Amino acid sequence: MADTMGKRGVVGCLALGVLTILYVSTDGKGHLASRTRTEASTIAQIRRNPLKTNGRPQLASRAWWDTLVQSVLNPTKKVLVFRSAGALIPKRESQLKGGEDAFFMSRLGGDEGVGNTDFLMQHSAEGYNKDRGSREGRVIARLEAATVLGVADGVGSWSQYKIDPGQYSKQLMMNTARASLEISKKTAKVASAMDILELGHERTKLKGSTTTTVACLKGNTLTAATIGDTAFVLLRKGKIYFRSPTQEYDFDTPFQLADLKMSEGYGQFSEPMDALTYTVRDIQPGDVLIMASDGLFDNLHDYEIEQVVAEKLQKSEGADAIASELIERARAHSLDPNFVSPWAQEKGQAEGFLGGTLRKFGVKAVFGGGYRGGKPDDISCVAGIAQYLIPGTDLFVPL
Fold it and tell me: If pLDDT is split at 50, 70 and 90, which confidence band does 377 have?
């Protein structure tokens, strides 16, 4: 039985293990209000499954509990985020230098209700090498409430000039992650992936170049900017419903982002204004975002990505399991001389006798040329599962 807390007080009755939760209030007339079975079930699921700190459930105050209940019942008080994870495996030749790829997961500085915004996760394989065991420099990182994410793939040809190809990609990702945090609350309302990439690029003053993809989630709208052959896919219920195209001058010759003054005389490079930009306005809880370097997309077919995502979601596994499985499969294919990879198929279309001949006349062949094998490369991937976060807590509304 609930205790009365005064004429305008709030009365709470929580019964775990039963089908109904009553969120009870007195309005001075003795009226009681009970919530629907669906709402009660949702609250019960959240209450039974809090996140843990140091292995122990966090204790909830009455104010915290009231915020939780009101957020569940009021959709406007829920914030859509990506429960995200990143994974990376450098190719053998680049392990000792920490690889050539990098990624980050972060938040807009003006985000409300996503916890401490003085935070970012930026990762490369720095410090990992072939002596660390069979994983060969595999990096796994998680961020439970990301709204800005990025992947970059440093261009390997810089090594011929004795310049580490990974330095530009790593610095760009660090600067872009910091840029997302520095956006003010006012500016964040209209901030896009392009805004964040421009600021990160402006601060990266190094010789070098990279392909990159940056994405930003605000409400149910995702904006993205891509340069080169890094890309992203969106999946709903395990099926791809959007895939960004690549930017290439020719086969295996992607657009590259660079500081034009620092890299002048080394080749043809692009600025953020050359990026392909996208806006997806209907991101839903349960949607999955996959962002990756060409090391993944060159070695995995779309149906394999769908298969991995569907299997992991069916087992209620998270973004870390998805990202890890994707890069492991891509790496295995990259080393298999008999696997007919997407890269081998594109190579056949571009360089096969008939395909190459047609290409000279501006016709892209749609058949393979008998090529087999994967493409050994650094492989990086960021995966995110869209889910509502309850502001003022570290809990999520169950999918």
Answer: very high
Asked if pLDDT for residue 78 goes beyond 50, the answer is: yes
Q: Cα–Cα distance between 245 and 384 in angstroms, integer?
A: 20
Measured in whole angstroms, the distance separating CA 59 from the mean position of its chain's CA atoms is 30
CA–CA gap between residue 302 and residue 308 (Å, rounded)? 10
Whether 237 contacts 288, CB under 8 Å? no
* Sequence letter at residue 212: T
The mean predicted confidence, pLDDT, of the chain is: 77
- Rounded-to-integer distance, Cα 221 and Cα 398, Å: 20
CA distance 104 to 311: 25
What secondary structure, in 3-state letters, does 299-351 show? CCCHHHHHHHHHHHHHCCCCHHHHHHHHHHHHHHHHCCCCCECHHHHHHHHHH
**Can you state the angle between helices 193-202 and 165-182, rounded to 10 degrees?**
120
Lookup: tokens for 209: 């170049």
DSSP state for residue 19 in the 8-state scheme:
S
Cβ atoms of 145 and 115 closer than 8 Å:
yes
The answer to whether residues 229 and 297 touch, using CB atoms and an 8 Å cutoff, is: yes
Instruction: Tell me phi and psi for residue 342, to 5 degrees.
Output: -55, -35
Backbone angles phi, psi at 133, to 5 degrees: 105, -170
Burial class for 211, CB neighbours closer than 10 Å (0-12, 13-18, 19+) = buried
